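Sequence, please.
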Protein backbone atom coordinates (compact mmCIF):
# COMPACT_ATOMS: atom_id res chain seq x y z
CA UNK A 1 0.00 0.00 0.00
CA UNK A 2 1.12 3.54 -0.79
CA UNK A 3 1.85 6.18 1.78
CA UNK A 4 -0.95 8.66 2.52
CA UNK A 5 0.06 12.25 1.76
CA UNK A 6 -2.43 14.84 3.01
CA UNK A 7 -3.10 18.06 1.14
CA UNK A 8 -2.15 21.32 2.78
CA UNK A 9 -4.98 22.85 4.81
CA UNK A 10 -5.21 26.03 2.68
CA UNK A 11 -5.44 23.94 -0.51
CA UNK A 12 -8.15 21.72 0.99
CA UNK A 13 -10.18 24.78 1.93
CA UNK A 14 -9.72 26.28 -1.55
CA UNK A 15 -7.72 29.28 -0.30
CA UNK A 16 -4.35 28.72 -2.00
CA UNK A 17 -3.16 27.11 -5.21
CA UNK A 18 0.43 26.36 -4.26
CA UNK A 19 1.63 25.65 -7.81
CA UNK A 20 0.28 29.00 -9.00
CA UNK A 21 1.69 30.79 -5.94
CA UNK A 22 5.13 29.24 -6.46
CA UNK A 23 5.22 30.48 -10.06
CA UNK A 24 4.06 33.95 -8.98
CA UNK A 25 6.62 34.24 -6.18
CA UNK A 26 9.45 33.03 -8.41
CA UNK A 27 8.72 35.97 -10.72
CA UNK A 28 10.40 38.13 -8.02
CA UNK A 29 7.99 40.94 -8.78
CA UNK A 30 4.93 42.61 -7.34
CA UNK A 31 1.78 40.50 -7.38
CA UNK A 32 -1.70 41.77 -8.17
CA UNK A 33 -4.29 39.74 -6.25
CA UNK A 34 -7.89 40.36 -7.31
CA UNK A 35 -10.80 38.92 -5.31
CA UNK A 36 -14.46 39.09 -6.31
CA UNK A 37 -17.10 38.28 -3.71
CA UNK A 38 -20.89 38.20 -3.90
CA UNK A 39 -21.19 41.98 -3.52
CA UNK A 40 -17.73 43.57 -3.79
CA UNK A 41 -14.36 43.53 -5.50
CA UNK A 42 -11.05 44.00 -3.73
CA UNK A 43 -7.45 43.93 -4.87
CA UNK A 44 -3.99 44.22 -3.40
CA UNK A 45 -0.56 44.86 -4.83
CA UNK A 46 1.65 42.47 -2.84
CA UNK A 47 5.38 42.06 -2.38
CA UNK A 48 6.04 38.45 -1.25
CA UNK A 49 8.61 38.06 1.55
CA UNK A 50 9.74 35.17 3.72
CA UNK A 51 7.76 36.50 6.70
CA UNK A 52 4.60 37.13 4.68
CA UNK A 53 3.25 39.33 1.92
CA UNK A 54 3.63 43.10 2.23
CA UNK A 55 0.70 45.12 0.92
CA UNK A 56 2.01 48.00 -1.22
CA UNK A 57 -1.40 49.30 -2.29
CA UNK A 58 -4.97 48.11 -2.10
CA UNK A 59 -8.39 48.93 -3.51
CA UNK A 60 -11.96 48.07 -2.56
CA UNK A 61 -15.09 48.65 -4.58
CA UNK A 62 -16.54 50.96 -1.90
CA UNK A 63 -14.04 53.57 -3.13
CA UNK A 64 -16.20 53.85 -6.26
CA UNK A 65 -19.14 55.10 -4.18
CA UNK A 66 -17.01 58.05 -3.04
CA UNK A 67 -16.34 58.84 -6.71
CA UNK A 68 -20.05 58.89 -7.55
CA UNK A 69 -20.58 55.34 -8.88
CA UNK A 70 -24.17 54.26 -8.25
CA UNK A 71 -24.29 50.97 -10.19
CA UNK A 72 -23.38 47.46 -9.12
CA UNK A 73 -20.03 47.21 -7.32
CA UNK A 74 -19.12 43.93 -8.99
CA UNK A 75 -20.13 44.51 -12.61
CA UNK A 76 -17.61 44.63 -15.45
CA UNK A 77 -17.78 48.47 -15.68
CA UNK A 78 -17.23 48.73 -11.91
CA UNK A 79 -14.28 46.32 -12.07
CA UNK A 80 -12.67 48.34 -14.87
CA UNK A 81 -13.16 51.65 -13.02
CA UNK A 82 -11.82 50.18 -9.77
CA UNK A 83 -8.83 48.79 -11.66
CA UNK A 84 -8.19 52.23 -13.18
CA UNK A 85 -8.37 53.82 -9.73
CA UNK A 86 -6.17 51.09 -8.20
CA UNK A 87 -3.60 51.42 -10.99
CA UNK A 88 -3.31 55.18 -10.53
CA UNK A 89 -3.09 54.75 -6.74
CA UNK A 90 -0.43 52.02 -6.99
CA UNK A 91 1.57 54.04 -9.51
CA UNK A 92 1.66 56.97 -7.07
CA UNK A 93 2.97 54.57 -4.40
CA UNK A 94 5.84 53.44 -6.63
CA UNK A 95 4.44 50.26 -8.21
CA UNK A 96 5.62 50.17 -11.81
CA UNK A 97 4.67 46.62 -12.79
CA UNK A 98 2.85 43.61 -11.36
CA UNK A 99 1.98 40.02 -12.18
CA UNK A 100 -1.62 38.83 -11.91
CA UNK A 101 -2.10 36.25 -9.15
CA UNK A 102 -5.68 35.06 -8.91
CA UNK A 103 -5.04 32.03 -6.69
CA UNK A 104 -7.60 29.26 -7.09
CA UNK A 105 -10.07 31.43 -9.01
CA UNK A 106 -10.19 30.39 -12.68
CA UNK A 107 -9.29 33.03 -15.23
CA UNK A 108 -11.94 33.54 -17.91
CA UNK A 109 -11.47 35.63 -21.05
CA UNK A 110 -13.56 38.82 -20.92
CA UNK A 111 -14.36 38.37 -17.22
CA UNK A 112 -14.50 40.84 -14.36
CA UNK A 113 -10.90 40.02 -13.41
CA UNK A 114 -9.73 40.82 -16.94
CA UNK A 115 -11.71 44.09 -16.84
CA UNK A 116 -9.96 44.97 -13.57
CA UNK A 117 -6.54 44.21 -15.07
CA UNK A 118 -7.37 46.34 -18.14
CA UNK A 119 -8.14 49.20 -15.75
CA UNK A 120 -4.86 48.70 -13.89
CA UNK A 121 -2.95 48.79 -17.18
CA UNK A 122 -4.79 51.97 -18.24
CA UNK A 123 -3.95 53.38 -14.79
CA UNK A 124 -0.24 53.16 -15.60
CA UNK A 125 0.94 49.85 -14.08
CA UNK A 126 2.43 47.31 -16.46
CA UNK A 127 0.82 43.86 -16.23
CA UNK A 128 1.67 41.13 -18.75
CA UNK A 129 -1.71 40.46 -20.31
CA UNK A 130 -2.99 39.40 -23.73
CA UNK A 131 -5.15 41.97 -25.51
CA UNK A 132 -7.62 39.31 -26.69
CA UNK A 133 -8.38 38.33 -23.06
CA UNK A 134 -9.81 41.77 -22.30
CA UNK A 135 -13.52 42.61 -22.52
CA UNK A 136 -14.74 44.73 -25.40
CA UNK A 137 -15.13 48.49 -24.98
CA UNK A 138 -18.91 48.04 -25.15
CA UNK A 139 -18.83 45.72 -22.12
CA UNK A 140 -16.42 47.98 -20.22
CA UNK A 141 -18.81 50.91 -20.56
CA UNK A 142 -21.88 48.82 -19.69
CA UNK A 143 -23.58 49.37 -23.05
CA UNK A 144 -24.63 45.71 -23.14
CA UNK A 145 -26.29 46.04 -19.70
CA UNK A 146 -28.11 49.19 -20.80
CA UNK A 147 -29.37 47.48 -23.99
CA UNK A 148 -30.49 44.43 -22.01
CA UNK A 149 -32.30 46.65 -19.49
CA UNK A 150 -34.03 48.57 -22.29
CA UNK A 151 -35.30 45.30 -23.78
CA UNK A 152 -36.46 44.01 -20.40
CA UNK A 153 -38.27 47.28 -19.68
CA UNK A 154 -41.01 46.08 -22.03
CA UNK A 155 -42.06 43.62 -19.30
CA UNK A 156 -42.12 45.70 -16.10
CA UNK A 157 -42.43 42.72 -13.74
CA UNK A 158 -39.37 40.94 -15.16
CA UNK A 159 -37.43 44.23 -15.29
CA UNK A 160 -38.21 45.04 -11.65
CA UNK A 161 -37.28 41.53 -10.51
CA UNK A 162 -34.00 41.39 -12.51
CA UNK A 163 -32.74 44.83 -11.47
CA UNK A 164 -34.36 45.06 -8.03
CA UNK A 165 -31.08 45.71 -6.19
CA UNK A 166 -30.10 48.61 -8.44
CA UNK A 167 -33.60 50.06 -8.51
CA UNK A 168 -33.73 50.08 -4.68
CA UNK A 169 -30.58 52.24 -4.74
CA UNK A 170 -32.25 54.64 -7.15
CA UNK A 171 -30.09 53.59 -10.12
CA UNK A 172 -31.56 52.86 -13.52
CA UNK A 173 -29.56 50.25 -15.46
CA UNK A 174 -30.07 52.26 -18.65
CA UNK A 175 -27.77 54.90 -17.13
CA UNK A 176 -24.66 52.68 -16.98
CA UNK A 177 -22.84 54.46 -19.81
CA UNK A 178 -23.41 57.97 -18.40
CA UNK A 179 -22.42 56.81 -14.90
CA UNK A 180 -19.29 55.11 -16.29
CA UNK A 181 -18.28 58.22 -18.26
CA UNK A 182 -18.73 60.52 -15.27
CA UNK A 183 -16.77 58.31 -12.83
CA UNK A 184 -13.98 57.63 -15.34
CA UNK A 185 -13.55 61.37 -15.84
CA UNK A 186 -13.37 61.83 -12.04
CA UNK A 187 -10.67 59.13 -11.75
CA UNK A 188 -8.61 60.39 -14.69
CA UNK A 189 -8.90 63.99 -13.49
CA UNK A 190 -7.94 63.14 -9.87
CA UNK A 191 -4.37 63.80 -8.85
Amino acid sequence: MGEYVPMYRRRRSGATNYNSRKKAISSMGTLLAVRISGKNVSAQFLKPTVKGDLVLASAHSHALRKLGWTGSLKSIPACYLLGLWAGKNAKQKGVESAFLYNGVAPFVKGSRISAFVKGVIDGGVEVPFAEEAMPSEERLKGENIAKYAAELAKDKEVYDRRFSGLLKQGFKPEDYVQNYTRVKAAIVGAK
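The longest helix spans residues 76-92.
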